[in-house]
Amino acid sequence: MSRYSVFSLEGGGGNSMEVNNIMIKKAILIVFLIVLTGALIITSGCSEDIDGEAKNEMINAETSNQDIMTPSSLGGISLGDSLQTVVDVLGNNYTESTESDNAEYIGEDMTVWSYESGIVVSFGKTSGKVLRITSTSTDLKTNLGIKVGDAAKTVFETYKPLYEEAVSRHSDEMLTGWFLMEDGAVMIFDFDKSDGAVVNSNVTPDSSVEKIILAYWKHFD
Length: 221
Description:
Elements: H1 2-69, H2 83-90, E1 94-99, E2 110-115, E3 119-124, E4 130-135, H3 152-159, E5 165-167, E6 174-180, E7 185-190, E8 211-216
Antiparallel strand pairs: 1-2, 2-3, 3-4, 4-8, 5-6, 6-7, 7-8
C-alpha cells in the first residue's frame, strides 16, 4: 500500500506541475496577445494619422494645381469671354466708349464698357471677345484673391511661386508686378497709377496695389 501511495503522490505532483506550466503558458500567451493588440491599435492610429496628413497634402496640391489650371480672371471675367458672359457676371449698368487701335498693337479697335464698380472691360470690335480688363476697385479680386489695396508683399507671395515676372522686350529689365499667365495673358499690378505708366519703380513690401490689369502680353510693345 505504501508503494502504491508513493506512486500516487508522484503522479499528483506531475499533474500539478503540468497544470502550472499550462497556466503559465496561457498567461504568457494572453500577455503577448494583449501587447500585440495594443501595438496593432497604435500602429493603426499612426497609419490613420499618416494617411490623414497625406490626404491633406494631396488636397492642398490639387487645390494649387486647380489654381494654376483655372483661367486667370479679374472681377470674375477672363480674357476671351463673350459680351454675354460679361453681362451675366457684371450686369448691363455700364457706359460705352470706343478705343481705336492707332498703334496697331491689338489688331482691331475696341469697344469699352466702364462700370461704376471700378472695372473696365475692353472687347475687340471684330472678335467680340474680351481683350483687356482693368480694375481700380477694392471689391474686385483676381482668381487668386488679390485686389486693389493689397500690399506688394501679399501679391508677390501669392504670384511669384506660380508665375514668372515678365521681362521688357526693349531693355531685358524685369517688369516688377507683371506676371506671365497661361494662354499668353499677363496680370499687371500697378502700384502707382498717378504716374500714368504701368511700369513700376521703387516698389516696397508695403506698397499698395492701385490698379490691376489683365491683358494679352503680345499686345504690349
